[in-house]
């Protein structure tokens, strides 16, 4: 079965990091039913990579770094990237021009809870929807973070701090960040749009795909 990768990119400003999070979707088999000619599977997301790009890195340099990472993943399987274009539309344009062999979803993060398909090339995504969706997946163990992962502890700190301040992205003071949470929540949000209930959750009987 072809591997599936989801990536989220939070574009930073001068005092905020640009952050990249990569997860892999895996289906775990759990028994075979000959009568149904189907296999029981559970889908989960596994965090494979977390990265903060140094402060004050130019957008062209960020795009080049991300392009290389996406092309490397695309060589292993189907790859999609969701990028926060709320204040970084020039970078989104550069990413679209550089895209080769992977999909790009641009999102505008809002204070409300909009949904639906893209408009003008951008999805509108609510801050609360992003963070709550990520928190629910972690609580249900539908999203796994590997031990020893680079920046894993930083992600854990961000998750605690975001929860303490009521799931409000972008509300930190100087020296505190939520870039990793934003990047990871974008990747997971995109997965829910692509697969819906098949992304994760209760095990079910799915027809075997040869």
Written description of the protein model:
By secondary structure, the protein is α/β, with parallel strands linked by helices. The chain has a single domain, classed as DNA-packaging terminase, C-terminal nuclease domain (Nucleotidyltransferase, domain 5). It has five helices and eight strands, in the order βββαβαββαβααβ. The chain has helices at residues 59-74, 89-98, 127-139, 152-164, 179-195; strands at residues 3-10, 18-33, 38-53, 77-84, 103-110, 123-126, 143-145, 204-207. Strands 1, 2, 3, 4, 5, 6, 7 and 8 form an eight-stranded mixed beta sheet that branches. A hairpin with a 4-residue loop joins strand 2 (18-33) and strand 3. The model is unreliable at 171-175 and 205-210 (pLDDT under 50).
In short:
The protein has 210 residues and is an alpha/beta fold.
Beta-strand segment tally? 8
Could you tell me how far the N terminus lies from the C terminus, measured between alpha carbons in angstroms? 8 Å
Number of helices: 5
Mean pLDDT: 84
The CATH superfamily title:
DNA-packaging terminase, C-terminal nuclease domain
- The total domain count is 1
Evaluate the radius of gyration.
Answer: 17 Å
Name the CATH architecture.
Answer: 2-Layer Sandwich
Order of helices and strands: EEEHEHEEHEHHE
Low-confidence stretches: 171-175, 205-210
CATH topology: Nucleotidyltransferase, domain 5
What structural category do the secondary elements indicate? Answer: alpha/beta
Name of the top-level CATH class: Alpha Beta
Main β sheet profile: 8 strands, mixed
Into which percentage range does the β-strand content fall? 25-35%
Q: What would you call the shape?
A: globular
């Amino acid at each position: 079965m072809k591997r599936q990768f989801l990536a989220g990119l939070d574009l930073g400003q001068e005092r905020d990091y640009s952050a990249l999070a990569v997860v892999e979707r895996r289906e775990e088999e759990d028994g075979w039913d000959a009568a149904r000619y189907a296999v029981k599977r559970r889908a989960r997301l596994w965090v494979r990579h977390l990265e903060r790009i140094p402060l004050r890195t130019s957008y062209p340099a960020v795009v080049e770094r991300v392009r290389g990472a996406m092309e490397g993943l695309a060589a292993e399987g189907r790859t999609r990237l969701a990028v926060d274009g709320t204040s970084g539309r020039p970078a989104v344009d550069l990413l679209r021009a550089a895209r080769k062999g992977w999909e790009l979803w641009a999102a505008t993060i809002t204070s409300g809870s909009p949904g639906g398909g893209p408009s003008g090339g951008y999805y509108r995504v609510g801050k609360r929807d992003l963070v709550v969706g990520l928190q629910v997946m972690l609580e249900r163990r539908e999203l796994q973070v590997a031990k020893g992962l680079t920046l894993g502890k930083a992600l854990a700190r961000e998750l605690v701090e975001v929860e303490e301040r009521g799931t409000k992205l972008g509300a930190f003071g100087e020296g505190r960040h939520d870039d990793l949470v934003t990047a990871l929540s974008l990747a997971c949000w995109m997965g829910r749009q692509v697969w819906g209930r098949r992304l994760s959750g209760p095990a079910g009987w799915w027809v075997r795909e040869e």
